[in-house]
Structure of 5'-nucleotidase SurE:
Amino acid sequence: MRILITNDDGINAPGLKVLEAIAQDLVGPDGEVWVVAPAFEQSGVAHCISYTHPTMIAQMGERRFAAEGSPADCVLAGLHDVLKDSPPDLILSGVNRGNNSAENALYSGTLGGAMEGALQGIRSIALSQYLGPKTHGLDNPFEASAVHGGDVIRKILAADPDGQSGYRLFYNVNFPPFPAADVVGTVATAQGIRPETSFSVEPHTSPSGRRFLWASGGNQRIGTAEGTDADMNLKGYITVTPMRADLTCHDSLARLKDALT
């Protein structure tokens, strides 16, 4: 088995080391783990690709590369350059520092990497670690993902349907903000939305008098609708949400067709 890993926190991120250990356990002594990760943090870039300028890539070690681009750029580099003659069986993206539940999924570079893998026809999973008061005091804030990650990935792969056509499934996994021993279980959930929570900007003036805007996120302790991803994360569950890159609102098509007739 050959696994390609990327992330959006950068090649030196602690969550990447956690995912490398998970991947190495998955492939065993005869498999291969390859890393192509951003040279610098790329949080919030979603499925961005560097379409108008080239991406520099450098080998940092055995089976380890850093690319000056987004997670999706890294997946493209991994599939069409680094591993062009021996494609991976699986792409893993993460483990992200912070949750990608609810509306966060739409901004996430971690999910962007997994989405690109799915568009390229490769089984792809994004993994993120929800943080909170119960993880702040841990020696390893990624403890829940480190302990439970391998088992969750194996279960997803066992359930991933064969012979997919069109937009391939990819998976959004979020580990709860709890120590590993306090994780209640793993559930399949829909993506939720936190009520009255959204990104905003805060204006600041630099010492030179120039005006800058800093992006600011919403309250991550607000739950989503009962049984959806962030709600279950805050109750101690690992959530797995199957996703596709198809953005069509299929339940609105018939109504819109009637309106346009």
The chain has a mean pLDDT of 97. Residues 143-159 form the longest helix (17 residues).
